[in-house]
Fold each of these.
Amino acid sequence: MMFVKLTRGSACKLACGFKFRSHNSSSKFRICQALSGDVTDSDIRIQGWVRSVRAQKEHLFLHVNDGSSLQPLQVVATSELDARGVTFGSAVDITGSLVKSPSKKQSVELHAKHIQVVGECSPVEFPFKIKERHSLEYLRQFPHLRCRTNIFSALLRLRSEASSAVHAFFKENNFVQIHTPVITSNDCEGAGELFQVEPAGREPTPDAGNQHFFSVPTFLTVSGQLHLEVMSGAFPAVYTFGPTFRAEKSQSRRHLAEFYMAEAEISFARSLQDLMAVMEGLFRATTEHILTCCAEDVALFHKYVAPGRREQVDHMLSKKFHVISYTEGIDILNRSSQRFSFPTEWGCDLQTEHEKYLVKHCGDVPLFVTDYPYDLKPFYARDNQDQPRRTVRNIPHALAAVDLLVPGVGELCGGSLREERLELLRTRLARAELEDTYGWYLELRKFGSVPHGGFGMGFERYLQCVLGVDNIKDVIPFARFSHSCPL
């Protein structure tokens, strides 16, 4: 199965200098545009925030940034201009002449004719200090302010461009985007880690009958997969990209209560290779795109957060992704001299320590692990056997499921072929006492059902992998996790 690579043209403009013109002022420019060399107007207007202030006897030098690029624009003002209130962190509206800079540090600079302080900032009270590099852990204390820093504004530009790249990949490969519901009655993962949804302030009364707003218990979605399966009965390829939720009480660097998933469902898929081709294509296309269109932002992370990560990313892209079965993975772990905290016998779930070891063992390139044990995956995963589950012990019983493991993170994607055989699916649902709950799901297999499969990719984990960020809370604008109280 072949997949289209992303085109560079229009999608790169957002990160590399998309032009913005105000209806009220034809001379207003984004700073990325002023720095690009595309500006032909000599008199321009910029708006942004002061990143540094340096005063000399006759001139005031400012670095101003508006979030459109990593590099600020240098503004030069004479002592004759009223620059009262201009401090580190203040918001300014400046008009002036854009000229070639005599300094080698920047190609152009703005000679200010008028400076207006739109929003003052006390540099003493401001938690970020000029010319000081703050750690990601320190910035995490200020979720309402950390977007003002170079590192986090770079992260947000990268998220925006990577998100666009995900959508572009699916669109160029003829997937139809589906807006799956955030509120649902389905527990797709079956783990029970759900946030229940009910109206605030409603007091239950004994005689009120059904107490649920939607007549049945409803939850914040853990996955859009089951809704995508509905749509795969009418389209060959569908996807969704949005927030998902887990009510897992954990404050570890791997867990969030709210995160984003890119999920796809492919009709007429008969093998795991069909799914793996899409997973690999999505990873490669998105990564190549942001390395091209956000080179400075990526380089900032690779220089100060994860030195040497760029070489690892290039290595990942230069190699073919490896494929092993779950059984082969267990054999590798059991032959290892490394001591693991969790058991490694056949039938156990792979933990992060196991996943990272397997990736390293296979050359530090993305690794597909296939054919997981029957009891490790949800009811919808396709049975590799043609008969209902045998109860004979010591006979490996596997499902057509696959995980994509990546360096530094572990599991990035999880997917499977879906059980399209009605009787086998009915048997498994009955065994789990879910036949009544998922009667509608059984009906999908009665009316024009086809072999199909799908997967989900954790967007924050993807960013961690490419940027080398250790804590998942540092790659999302507002980190929601157990016991946290952000905005």
Amino acid sequence: MDCWKGAVSHSWIYPTVIICANGFFTTMRPSESFLTPYLTGPDKNLTAEEVTNKIFPVWTYSYLALLFPVFLLTDYVRYKPVLLLQGLSLIVTWLLLLFAHGVVAMQLVEFFYGMVTATEVAYYAYIYSVVSSQHYQRVTSYCRSVTLVAATVAAVLGQLLVSLAGVSYFHLNAISLASVSLAFVCALFLPMPQRSMFFHRKDAPEPVPGPGKGLAVGTAPRPQSCQEERSPAAAAAAAGAPSPQPQAGSAGPHRHLLGVLLQLGRDLRHCYGSRKLLCWSLWWALATAGFNQVVNYVQVLWDLRAPSHSSAVYNGAVEAIATFLGSATSMAVGYVKVNWDLSGELALGIFSALDSGSLLLMHFTDNIWACYAGYLAFKACYMLLITIATFQIAINLSMERYALMFGFNNFVALVIQTILTVVVVDSGGLGLDISTQFLIYGSYFAVITGIFLIRSMYTIISIKCRNTSVAAESTAP
């Protein structure tokens, strides 16, 4: 028995299998594609206005409020307790969905779901804290693939159960509750990490990983491991940043926290000092805010175009196809040979224009199939661009700052999304109807298009003028 426990504690396979099982059951929620029909149907008997203007905005607000404290807590308690918290939050979310009624109860659902999304940072951070660096690329592939498979399986299963077996939305939510409960059980069996990125790190030198052991393009950010990471001073020196003060083990917790925050500030200043990274990050934040709004409210628009009480609902099939198209376009980026320094901003402008056109189509058409097609095009374009942005940022950052910049970009996106929610959606703001909201979102992406098309023209002209000047100088006698 002791030999088996020792093998488990030193093997990368055991924690990878358990965290992948946790990720699969966490994501395998067949009821999620049918949330709006469930809330507006006979089970909950809520109006579309209540769902849109009073219930769904709570998720955005709670996510924003919880994100930063949960990020620090995740690192401080070393990931596993936060994964358990995520599992409990999912269970509470689906218990409330099944058995609670009324606007206030559904607002509580959105609050707990905000807790779920805020704790998602622990999923990837955990696995990088318990395996050695030579396995990072492999475990990242496994963890991302299993969630993609789970999302597709959940959407297809939900659609088949609704369309062919006549399963009610209530029973779909019961299946989701069983799945997230299994995810919580899986989390209980995870070994407890001994290290984390900021609060539990040691100053042991890390050998430089060889070829093929770096982070895969488009993968999630990862924290440095304890025994294998460079010291904070060495990392900062390698990146050209000022060395942080040594973190003495005898320092008080408040001083330790202040040191962590100061180091975060120095790293952020270094990251955003590059105009190129700033440009890609600006698109990331603006587009992700709009994308999250569309995904959060698109079911309400579909229910308006084809009411679920009188029409067949194909939300699950559309989400499954959208997931497949998103993964296909993301994979295609790895095979496209483009000078992104020259054409990257132009690509951002062109595909943002396609996103804008897709959303405006969804506003102006009354045909549900046109709405579905617009959503598929919108999600495919976004997934293509976010993969390019991820790659461009990753290749220009040291690994110590990789996770930090991605996390901060998402935080800025969430702030922008909250502003959109307050102004456009919330009943305390304009409280616009869902069709008008999509007109606003389409116009929002049109503004993004204008920003990056203008910027791309400036970049292309500047590079050509510089090349012409260099050529003229080289031919001069």
